Amino acid sequence: MNKEGKKETIRVFSRQSTIIPAMIGHTCAVHNGREFVPIVINEGMVGFKLGDFVPTHTFTSHPKQARTRLSEAAPIP
């Protein structure tokens, strides 16, 4: 694809594939378990895995815990 000058997105299921120098400048859509997330590969990504750049979990927040009021707490002896 580098020689032909094509700029198309490659869909990839394999998150364990290593990024090589020939992939620089291409766009890969990596599957995160639910959807394909596009990433553009640059020089700093060479040697890493494709899955390192696409998170699989979405952190929302910790659940709210019920607070006890000081007046309702057990008295201190």
UniProtKB/TrEMBL annotation:
GO cellular component: cytoplasm; small ribosomal subunit
Family from the record: Belongs to the universal ribosomal protein uS19 family.
Domain of life: Eukaryota
One term of GO molecular function: rRNA binding
A Pfam family hit: Ribosomal_S19
Entry annotated with the keyword RNA-binding: yes
Transmembrane segments: none
Protein's UniProt keywords contain Phosphoprotein: no
SUPFAM superfamilies: Ribosomal protein S19 (SSF54570)
GO BP terms, alphabetized: ribosomal small subunit assembly; translation
Gene3D superfamilies assigned to the protein according to its UniProt record, in alphabetical order: 30s Ribosomal Protein S19, Chain A (3.30.860.10)
Family annotation (PANTHER family): RIBOSOMAL PROTEIN S19P FAMILY MEMBER, SMALL RIBOSOMAL SUBUNIT PROTEIN US19M
Protein name (database record): Small ribosomal subunit protein uS19c
Assigned keywords, A-Z: Ribonucleoprotein, Ribosomal protein, RNA-binding, rRNA-binding
